[in-house]
Specification:
The chain is of the alpha+beta class and 313 residues long. It has nine helices and 15 strands. The protein has two domains: 15-150, 2-Layer Sandwich (D-amino Acid Aminotransferase, Chain A, domain 1), CATH 3.30.470; 156-310, Alpha-Beta Barrel (D-amino Acid Aminotransferase, Chain A, domain 2). The chain is 28% helix and 26% strand. It is globular, with a radius of gyration of 20 Å. Bound molecules: 4'-deoxy-4'-aminopyridoxal-5'-phosphate (PMP).
Length: 313
């Protein structure tokens, strides 16, 4: 039984391959779709998509972001992502520069310009450009960046086999519910996972599982799903919400509570949820086999439902 791990599995993010290509050069070339960049209300060639070194995103990580994906050119759960973006911005007293309707227009335009069927839209809002001083600057307008890049979905072979993970101490700050661009704790955890040759880092705070470095974590025990509750310790994943609604439709019991690492090791099934990975079975954690060593029936049922919902199956 082969367990796929990052690095050895051929999972690669090739989305950087078109960096540097200008929209003007490439827009007419059907064989080479352009990645799209947008700054402060304008679509610009990638090479012109630059921000000041005084930007507070660069100086302090003072900003928020979202990642939205498309299925056949249509942004998925756009409302939920924009709602979370607004909430994140509000929690940091960041000015939301565009209305919901305006955002929807920019995003749809960007997706159309890029032309990818499967794309990931990255949005970032920072507090803006100001001389370096920790406190909020008085008159500053936010910096808004959006990119649209091709999404390379995980292979069916990886989905079928499931992935390996390792646990890593959750070193992040106390407001993980805000989707802040401060991702150092996540970055360090993911690096640990990479060094261990596994797909994801599962974060553990005071002995309890919070979430993945870029995903939510669900354990299945005796037919019930157990997952960390919403609150300051986790990001309320858009995929998490959709999956928990699906679970209710499948009459699967859901318990939102923290659980210890041992509970993970002895779970019948473990799976991850996230915008780009969707529903992904975890079959090995810290070198221990989970359940039967294959994605279990509840993971498979939810993944199948996901594929039907998104038309990706
Ligand atoms: N937790 C963290 C820390 C994440 O970075 C992500 C990915 N955005 C998730 C959970 C999953 O969230 P979503 O389903 O909205 O992609």
């Amino acid at each position: 039984m082969e367990i796929h791990r990052r690095g050895s599995s051929g999972v690669s993010d090739r989305s950087d391959e078109f960096i540097g290509e200008s929209i003007g050069e490439s827009i007419g070339l059907l064989s080479r779709m352009p990645d799209i960049a947008f700054i402060n209300g304008r679509f610009v060639p990638w090479a012109e998509a630059t921000v000041s070194i005084d930007d507070r995103g660069f100086q302090f990580g003072d900003g928020v972001y979202e990642v939205i994906r498309t299925y056949r050119g249509v942004p998925f759960e756009l409302d939920a992502h924009l709602e979370r973006l607004s909430r994140s911005a509000k929690e940091l007293s960041l000015l939301q520069p565009y209305s919901r309707t305006q955002w929807m227009e920019w995003i749809r335009e960007g997706v159309k310009l890029a032309g990818y069927r499967e794309a990931k839209v990255y949005i970032q809002i920072t507090r803006g450009v100001a001389p370096r001083d920790h406190a909020f600057p008085p008159d500053v307008s936010p910096t808004v960046v959006m990119t649209v890049r091709e999404l390379h979905p995980l292979s069916p072979a990886i989905r079928h086999a499931g992935v390996a993970a390792r646990t890593v101490e959750d070193l992040r700050w106390g407001r993980c519910d805000i989707k802040s661009i401060n991702l150092l704790g996540n970055v360090l955890a993911r690096e640990e996972a990479k060094k261990a040759g596994v797909f994801e880092a599962i974060l553990v705070k005071d002995g309890l599982v919070t979430e993945g470095s870029a995903s939510n974590v669900m354990a299945v025990r005796a037919g019930s799903i157990v997952t960390a509750p919403e609150g300051p310790r986790i990001l309320s994943g858009v995929t998490r919400t959709v999956v928990l609604t699906m679970a209710a439709k499948e009459r699967i019991l859901v318990e939102e509570r923290f659980f210890p690492v041992d509970f993970l090791y002895t779970a019948d099934e473990v799976f991850l949820t996230g915008t780009t990975i969707e529903v992904l079975g975890v079959v090995e954690i810290d070198g221990r086999v989970i359940g039967t060593g294959r994605p279990g029936p509840i993971t498979r049922a939810l993944a199948a439902r996901w594929a039907r919902l998104t038309g990706s199956g």
